[in-house]
TrEMBL record:
Solcar repeats lie at residues 63-146, 156-241, 252-357. This is Calcium-binding mitochondrial carrier protein SCaMC-2-A isoform X3. It is a multi-pass membrane protein. GO terms for biological process: transmembrane transport. It comes from Drosophila lebanonensis.
Length: 363
């Protein structure tokens, strides 16, 4: 990965540079890197570190860049819709204070709202793709100009791309984060609680104020860097250990590279997942309080006191470990991993067909 000077860490949902990467280095390793990048996008933490595409001057002038972004948006929307039930199960399990299995959670949700309730929160999850992609792309272009300075033609290093991508992800997340909060609230809502996205936004603002739309913002931002750093470090370490342990610097096989990539992504997710869980609980706090005050829920949510010190990020960490143990920090991680493979597969296939329809030639 470090060998390819033009390699960019973490591809977005479109796979614009696959052909260049395959030509630049070993095709098997490039496939594994792409697989890791796609895993990162569909795990609970990781997608905010995706570095936007670098488009050539010709692609910018001919308008090919927006076709790639549109194709990626379509692929992301379809894959999120297809895996929405698993995503909602994950969110419900994250806010539980007691052990609950996937089948039990699914039965309770179906009993409360029927089959259609499994897609609650998916509308806002798909809608936020467009503004998030546009903001990240614009921010990334600005960061590139700042980093390059007067030498606009200079090729950026991997570290510089990483910094630019992280900054772009942080900027876009800061602006669209209220949509993340809305997604969590809509996923956890009971039948009849909200009429739609606009009604949910109005009621949250009226009852809780504007600050409610940024609950969980800090752990959301903090969770990005551990995932990306651990993923990158573990992958390179495992690959180098393998090469060092074999004679004549034998290059690892496809299966070894795939194992290294899967292991690094899984470890990155395991280390950063507690921050994702705390983020979700903070986002759902007021919703859980209001629901528990007005009615007895079939799926008991965490009750909270808006003025409690335990409702801060660090306070909530201590409370979870004290009352639920370390396993409480990993509730919902199983459906989170289960949705990765179908999401990646669907996204790639849809992107291929969308690209062809938009006139993009794919390798």
């Amino acid at each position: 990965m470090l060998r390819n000077s033009t390699y960019q860490y973490n591809l977005p949902v479109d796979y614009h540079n696959i052909q260049q990467m395959a030509v630049a280095g070993d095709m098997m390793e490039d496939f594994v890197v792409i697989f890791r990048d796609m895993m990162g996008r569909y795990l609970d933490i990781g997608e905010d570190m995706n570095v936007p595409d670098d488009f050539t001057q010709k692609e910018m002038q001919t308008g090919l860049w927006w076709r790639h972004l549109v194709a990626g948006g379509i692929a992301g929307g379809v894959s999120r819709t297809c895996t929405a039930p698993l995503d909602r199960i994950k969110v419900y399990l994250q806010v539980q204070t007691h052990r609950m299995g996937i089948s039990e959670c699914t039965q309770l949700m179906l009993k409360e709202g029927g089959v259609s309730s499994m897609w609650r929160g998916n509308g806002i999850n798909v809608l936020k793709i467009a503004p998030e992609t546009a903001l990240k792309f614009a921010a990334y272009e600005q960061m590139k100009r700042l980093i390059r300075g007067s030498d606009s033609a200079r090729q950026m290093t991997i570290a510089e791309r990483f910094v630019a991508g992280a900054a772009a992800g942080g900027i876009s997340q800061t602006i669209i984060y209220p949509m993340e909060v809305l997604k969590t609230r809509l996923a956890l809502r009971k039948t009849g609680q909200y009429k739609g996205i606009a009604d949910a936004a109005y009621k949250i603002y009226k009852n809780e104020g504007g600050r409610a739309f940024y609950r969980g913002y800090v752990p959301n931002i903090l969770g990005i860097l551990p995932y990306a750093g651990i993923d990158l470090a573990v992958y390179e370490t495992l690959k180098r250990r393998y090469i060092a342990s074999h004679d004549n610097n034998e290059q690892p096989s496809f299966l070894v590279l795939l194992a290294c990539g899967s292991t690094s992504s899984a470890l990155g997710q395991l280390c950063s997942y507690p921050l994702a869980l705390v983020r979700t609980r903070l986002q759902a706090q007021a919703a859980a309080t209001i629901l528990n005050q007005k009615r007895k829920t079939q799926i008991p949510l965490k009750s909270s006191d808006a003025h409690s010190s335990e409702d801060t990020m660090t306070g909530l960490f201590r409370k979870i470990v004290r009352q639920e143990g370390l396993t409480g920090l990993y509730r919902g991680i199983t459906p989170n991993f289960l949705k990765v493979l179908p999401a990646v597969s669907i996204s790639y296939v849809v992107y291929e067909y969308s690209s062809r329809a938009l006139g993009i030639k794919m390798s």
